[in-house]
From TrEMBL:
This is Cytochrome P450 90A1. Belongs to the cytochrome P450 family. Keywords: Heme, Iron, Membrane, Metal-binding, Monooxygenase, Oxidoreductase, Transmembrane, Transmembrane helix. The keyword Ligase does not apply. GO terms for cellular component: membrane. Its cofactor is heme. Pfam families: p450 (PF00067). It comes from Musa balbisiana (Banana). InterPro entries: Cyt_P450, Cyt_P450_CS, Cyt_P450_E_grp-IV, Cyt_P450_sf.
């Protein structure tokens, strides 16, 4: 009897064990299916506004990073939030960033707030998609920003001349021994705007370009404003719409005059064959069939040129300003950069008017370290928005079709997991071969100051050249001190310097 009782007890134990294994396996499968079908963890914040107010408030402080840091610490490098009216998956994961940037046109598409889309225009490069975007991106790169275009065309001399022209205006008058006070960001923006206008429509600095620049300032202010109805012209967005119409009218007038010039030139084309080539700016490229398969209407040409003006104006000038800010705060780095640039200037001999050549630009290794580090720390483009075109599966999560995704470059660039002492400006880190390799490989999702994938900023090399030329003439021709302290945040104000 005891033997039978023991057999029944053993049988019961086996049943319990088997049942436990079955239930554990069923639970594991349910958890796996649930994980595969759920969004990354996070918080949607307040009704309607979500966490938008917290995000904006963070970027108006001395240190905006806690908004990201707190959520990464709580939820991981992939988390869900609710900003600008939509549920958004926020990524501080370089692996996910690389995957999404490389999936443009297949799994994701670009997606921007309506205020930006309206002000730039539906035919801007930023909003183009598919084969047409590929063709126009290639044209922009080839015509304006490739090393060959900068080296072999007249682009580098234009950069050199415009930078010198602006810096020469800083010099104190002969009758005054006091230093000049310079609002550096304003002056940097003037350089980049005049250069971009020159390359797009061949206008030299003057009353027309300055009038256009004033309207551009109003237009850009409307990018991240609330898109109130257009009849509310007193709002930031309303003023931006009015400025957009003025810019559009100015560009249309240029296009019409250029068409008249081409028509007049066509009458004498036969005897002019083999003669000198006329200017070949971006407008000329577009009119000569830059998008041969589809052609471009006047409206499309305006949108395309207008967006390129925005792209060439805001970001490069801010990096120029912050490079000076960081160098001012780190005298040893400034001394090394000045030594490098004075060595290049010394090779020019007594000819102070001799412009920089491509070989000079390629002889600035420490300057490039400074630019790399400024791009990493400043993060002028903090990230990009995308929208999923299909369900995206990543590390057990599912991001459903139609969901907004924000790829944060800033969060990765300032993550100590990928950059030692990441919040410190240290240009010497780029002398390390492993770190320097990030620039050559597109960062593997870790270093992406110009984005990546098929929407890699076509002006990445041009930006570096402009900043390099600017720093060359600044450090070899001037000394300076900061006239007033300013805070460094996303809403950058002009830095003020006294220039000797």
């Amino acid at each position: 009897m005891d033997s039978g009782r023991w057999s029944l007890q053993l049988f019961d134990v086996m049943l319990v064990v088997i049942a436990g294994i079955v239930f554990w396996e069923l639970g594991r499968r349910r958890r796996t299916r649930a994980a595969a079908g759920r969004l990354p963890p996070g918080s949607v914040g307040l009704p309607v506004v979500g966490e938008t107010l917290r995000l904006i408030a963070a970027y108006k402080t001395e240190d905006p990073e806690p908004f990201i840091d707190e959520r990464v610490r709580r939820h991981g490098r992939l988390f869900t939030t609710h900003v600008f009216g939509e549920r958004t998956v926020f990524s501080a994961d370089p692996e996910f960033n690389r995957m999404v940037l490389g999936a443009e046109g297949r799994a994701v598409e670009c997606s921007y707030p309506s205020s930006i889309s309206t002000l730039l225009g539906a035919h801007s490069l930023l909003l183009m998609r598919g084969a047409r975007h590929k063709r126009m991106h290639s044209l922009t790169l080839t015509r304006l920003a490739s090393p060959a275009a900068i080296r072999d065309a007249a682009l580098l001399p234009d950069i050199d001349r415009l930078v010198r022209r602006t810096l020469d205006s800083w010099s104190s008058s002969p009758s005054s021994s006091s230093p000049s006070r310079v609002l550096l960001l304003d002056q940097a923006k003037k350089i980049t705007f005049e250069l971009t206008v020159k390359q797009l429509v061949s206008f030299d600095p003057g009353e027309w370009t300055e009038s256009l620049r004033r309207e551009y300032l109003l237009l850009i202010e409307g990018f991240f404003s609330i898109p109130f109805p257009s009849f509310l012209s007193f709002t930031t967005y309303g003023r931006a719409l009015k400025a957009r119409k003025k810019v559009e009218a100015a560009l249309k007038e240029v296009i019409r005059k250029r068409k008249q010039e081409k028509a007049a030139a066509g009458a004498t084309m036969t005897r002019a064959a083999g003669g000198d080539k006329k200017r070949k700016d971006m407008l000329e490229e577009l009119m000569d069939g830059g998008d041969e398969e589809e052609g471009m209407t006047e409206e499309e040409t305006v949108d395309f040129l207008l967006a390129l003006l925005v792209a060439g104006y805001e970001t490069t000038s801010t990096i120029m300003t912050l490079a000076v800010k960081f160098l001012t705060d780190l005298p040893h780095a400034l001394a090394l950069l000045r030594e490098e640039q004075e060595g290049i200037r010394a090779k020019k001999g007594d000819d102070e008017e001799q412009p920089l050549a491509w070989s000079d630009y390629k002889s600035m290794p420490f300057t490039q370290c400074v630019i790399n580090e400024t791009l990493r720390v400043a993060n002028i483009i903090s990230g990009v928005f995308r929208r999923s075109m299909t369900d995206i599966h990543f590390k057990g999560y599912k991001i459903p079709k139609g969901c907004k995704v924000f790829i944060s470059f800033r969060a990765v660039h300032l993550d100590p997991e990928y950059f030692e002492d990441a919040r410190t400006f240290n240009p010497w880190r780029w002398q390390n071969n492993e770190v320097a390799q990030l620039q050559q490989t597109g960062g593997a999702g870790v270093y992406t100051p110009f984005g990546g994938g098929s929407r890699l900023c076509p002006g990445y090399e041009l930006a570096r050249v402009v900043i390099s030329v600017f720093l060359h003439y600044l450090v070899t021709g001037f000394s300076w001190e900061e006239a007033e302290r300013d805070r460094l945040n996303e809403f950058l104000r002009p830095y003020s310097y006294r220039i000797d």
